[in-house]
Design goal:
About 45% of the residues lie in helices and about 15% in strands. The protein is an alpha/beta fold and about 300 residues long. The protein folds into two domains: about 30-140 and about 255-305, Periplasmic binding protein-like II (D-Maltodextrin-Binding Protein, domain 2, 3-Layer(aba) Sandwich); about 145-240, Osmoprotection protein (prox), domain 2 (D-Maltodextrin-Binding Protein, domain 2, 3-Layer(aba) Sandwich). The two termini are about 30 Å apart.
């Protein structure tokens, strides 16, 4: 993952976000592509994309490995970008599927969504997707955004919840992904739910990874958006602030696919993966890739698939 943050990285991330949001159209449904992707050749190999952070890349390798083991040819296209980018790639046929997260996907397609529990999110999500997209079965595995602070910052301000953070938010710098500036669960949600308007918004493009956490530990920022399955939380004794108003909805891992692209066998394989993937598995996979072992996403995925019996 990224080891240093430069001005050019921040500028590039902001430029990508601007372009992707402009493509969505002001006030339009972000998934209304206006054009239909060309139908894929029957039996053509599947292409599985991923977002621009390691967990998503590992999940893409898990999906591809399980499909290949079942005799369904699949390859990966990692690091496509944020949801604003990879959803378009599924729609235009650049990729066929991508691992996603239920709650954030729902709030992306429906900015007025209020569902927060896993069951409520999954009850609402399928009906909000456009006709050219569908989701498969969700895993028990969940990885939510969370706002974390150092123990020193928590002690200094008496922080236990996001409501506490809201009271002093105008005194701190908050690090989040660039797209959080617009997403409902990002700055808009933090302001609406907790009155949190940070003194400074600092965009990071490493998905709450080591660059973000280093900035937090160096006190360049005082709060950061870090995924709950990140091994960096425990390793650095970070404090996860409670979210009593469910600004961050349930985030079950699930495949987002181009409607009609997968046959029954491929769907069965991916649903089987979701049926056994747990949050504890995510924590271990993330540690394998981002911890001391530094396994590649493909190797970590292969080890998990063998352990679970997908690879003989």
């Amino acid at each position: 993952m990224r080891r240093s943050l430069t001005r050019s990285m921040v500028f590039a991330a902001g430029t990508l976000l601007t372009l992707s949001l402009a493509a969505c159209g002001s006030g339009a449904n972000p998934l209304d592509s206006g054009t239909s992707a060309a139908p894929a050749t029957p039996g053509a190999p599947l292409v599985i994309g991923s977002a621009n952070f390691p967990e998503s890349q590992t999940l893409a390798e898990v999906y591809a490995g399980a499909l290949n083991a079942a005799g369904i040819t699949a390859s990966t296209k990692p690091g496509i970008g944020s949801r604003e980018v990879y959803v378009r790639a599924v729609q235009d046929g650049s990729i066929d599927l991508v691992p996603d997260y239920s709650g954030n996907l729902l709030r992306y397609v429906d900015t007025t969504a209020t569902a927060s529990s896993a069951a409520d999110v999954m009850a609402a999500l399928p009906g909000k997707l456009p006709a050219d997209l569908q989701v498969l079965e969700p895993a028990q595995a969940e990885d939510k955004d969370s706002i974390v602070v150092t123990q020193a910052t928590a002690d200094k301000y008496g922080l236990k919840t996001l409501a506490d953070l809201g009271k002093i938010c105008d005194q701190i710098a908050l690090g989040m992904p660039p797209e959080a500036k617009e997403r409902p669960q990002g700055l808009p949600g933090l302001e609406a739910n907790y009155g949190c308007v940070p003194k400074e918004f600092v965009p990071f493009s490493d998905g709450g990874g080591p660059v973000t956490v280093k900035a937090l530990l160096d006190d360049q920022i005082q709060a950061a958006d870090v995924f709950t399955t990140s091994p960096l939380i425990a390793k650095n004794n970070l404090v996860v602030l409670e979210d009593p108003k469910s600004n961050f909805a349930a985030q079950q891992v699930l495949p987002l696919v181009r409607a009609g692209r997968l046959d029954a066998k491929a769907i069965e394989v991916l649903n089987k993966v979701s049926g056994v993937l747990t949050t504890e598995d995510l924590l271990r996979l993330n540690d394998d890739v981002s911890g001391d072992q530094k396994l590649s996403s493909k190797d970590a995925a292969a080890a998990w698939l063998k352990e679970k019996g997908f690879i003989k």
